[in-house]
Structures are given as structure tokens and as C-alpha cells.
């Protein structure tokens, strides 16, 4: 039987910057229809990994560098998700790839609300990759919130990684909440109807731009806990 450590070593060797495992029983509080076993009834473990984004992109005066980096890294994560799935299948493990962004099926047009088949930020938390911040982003101690997550559902029981226990958001900090130009944050959730017009902005040429990422940029730990958020 392949070990958790061997799987994680394989994922890192394929290009991931972070990798951890959450046993499926940690998802007991997942909403009905969005549990890993709602996607694959044979799921026993969830492999979660991440690739980091270039830090300097959020300091650029134009949103184009960040938009480009975000799109490119998302594609890298999706390709890595497929490569991990194929690699593990050769070892006799059933591996179901989860997209790092879209497509998804759940959509409520009246409030511009979409929900992925699996919440990767919650999966990342349950695998020990970080703490959910007040900006709703996963904050990793090494790379901060500048990461793009991916996941693969596995049909084998694997040892889980310990949950992160560090403090990512001081109780008194409201920087992301107060800095959001759309007023879309309340410290626990994000109002997608308010957020989408700026975070997914279509210009006159038809390009989709990440025009606002203020909640990511103002976080004192956007680049990790160790460097104090220095750009």
C-alpha cells in the first residue's frame, strides 16, 4: 500500500509548492451535495495541493500582471491535477480530479452566487495547509494567501496532516473588510453579487480582468507569516 508521505513526495516532485492530505471524515460538516463523497462515493481521502503566485503582481499599478498570473497559475494547477490523477492511477489508486476554479453547476443568478462542487479553501484548511482569513482566503504560514489550490479525491485511507493552529487574522484586524471597495466582506463570508463586478471585470475588448484583489493585497500576511507581509 502506498504511503501518505510517498504520495506527497510525488506531488511535490510534479511541481506543487504545498501538499497535504485530509481524511474524508473531516468533511462531516460539508453542505449536502458538496461533500467529497457526493462527488465520488469511494472517496476516502482528499489530497490538497497548491502553487504560489508571484508576489510582486499585486503591487503593479495595472491589474494586467495579476490577471495574467492568476489565470496562468490556475491553468498550471489544473494540468497538475490531471497529472497527479494519472500518476496515482498507475499505482492502483482511484483518483478523481477537481477543477481549481470552474466549471461548476450550482448557480443562483438572482444573487450572482456560484458554488464549486468542492470548496478548495475549506479542503485546504481540513488538510492543514492554512487558516481561513476574514477575507475568506486560505492563509498559509509560508506563502500567505498568494496560492492557488487544487485537489484530487482518492479511494484509499491515508494518514491526514495536522490542522494548522497558527493565528492568521488578529481579532482586531479589519483591513480587508474596511478596504473592500464593494463592501462585500463581513469577516466570515463574501457577497459574490457585490464582489464579482470588480473581481471578474469585462472590459470593452471583452477580456475578463481581475480588476480588484484588495482583500488579498492589504492582508498583513499576504506573503506568509514569516516575512511580516513585506513585498
List the helices and strands and how they pair.
Layout: H1 4-13, E1 18-23, H2 36-39, E2 45-52, H3 64-89, E3 95-98, E4 106-108, E5 113-115, H4 120-126, E6 131-132, E7 138-139, E8 147-154, H5 175-179, H6 192-199, E9 201-202, E10 208-209, H7 214-217
Antiparallel strand pairs: 1-2, 2-8, 3-8, 4-5, 6-7, 9-10
Overview of the molecule:
By secondary structure, the chain is α+β, with helices and mostly antiparallel strands. The chain has a single domain (1-225), classed as NADH Oxidase. It has helices spanning 4-13, 36-39, 64-89, 120-126, 175-179, 192-199, 214-217; strands at residues 18-23, 45-52, 95-98, 106-108, 113-115, 131-132, 138-139, 147-154, 201-202, 208-209. The strands form 4 sheets. A 4-stranded antiparallel beta sheet has the order 1-2-8-3, with helices on both faces. It has a two-stranded antiparallel sheet with strand order 4-5. Strands 6-7 form a two-stranded antiparallel ribbon. β9 and β10 (208-209) form a beta hairpin. The longest helix has 26 residues, at 64-89. This is Epoxyqueuosine reductase. Residues 160-190 form the 4Fe-4S ferredoxin-type domain.
Q: Summed up, what is this model?
A:
This is Epoxyqueuosine reductase. The protein is of the alpha+beta class.
| Helix content estimate | 25-40%
CATH architecture: 3-Layer(aba) Sandwich
The CATH class designation is Alpha Beta
Largest beta-sheet details: 4 strands, antiparallel
Count of discrete structural domains: 1
Amino acid at each position: 500500500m502506498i504511503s501518505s508521505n510517498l504520495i506527497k513526495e510525488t506531488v511535490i516532485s510534479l511541481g506543487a509548492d504545498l501538499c497535504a492530505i485530509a481524511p474524508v471524515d473531516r468533511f462531516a460538516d460539508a453542505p449536502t451535495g458538496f461533500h467529497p463523497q457526493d462527488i465520488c462515493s469511494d472517496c476516502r481521502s482528499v489530497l490538497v495541493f497548491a502553487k504560489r503566485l508571484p508576489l510582486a503582481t499585486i503591487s503593479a499599478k495595472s491589474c494586467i500582471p495579476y490577471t495574467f498570473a492568476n489565470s496562468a497559475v490556475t491553468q498550471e494547477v489544473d494540468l497538475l491535477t490531471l497529472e497527479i490523477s494519472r500518476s496515482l492511477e498507475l499505482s492502483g489508486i482511484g483518483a478523481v480530479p477537481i477543477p481549481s476554479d470552474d466549471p461548476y453547476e450550482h448557480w443562483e443568478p438572482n444573487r450572482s452566487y456560484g458554488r464549486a462542487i468542492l470548496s478548495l479553501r475549506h479542503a485546504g484548511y481540513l488538510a492543514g495547509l492554512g487558516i481561513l482569513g476574514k477575507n475568506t482566503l486560505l492563509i498559509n504560514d509560508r506563502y500567505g494567501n498568494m496560492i492557488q489550490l487544487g485537489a484530487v479525491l482518492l479511494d484509499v485511507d491515508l494518514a491526514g496532516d495536522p490542522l494548522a493552529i497558527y493565528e492568521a487574522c488578529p481579532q482586531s484586524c479589519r483591513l480587508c473588510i474596511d478596504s473592500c471597495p464593494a463592501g462585500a466582506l463581513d469577516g466570515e463570508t463574501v457577497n459574490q453579487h457585490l464582489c464579482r463586478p470588480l473581481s471578474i471585470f469585462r472590459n470593452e475588448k471583452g477580456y475578463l480582468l481581475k480588476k480588484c484583489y484588495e482583500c488579498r493585497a492589504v492582508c498583513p500576511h499576504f506573503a506568509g507569516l514569516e516575512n511580516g507581509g513585506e513585498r
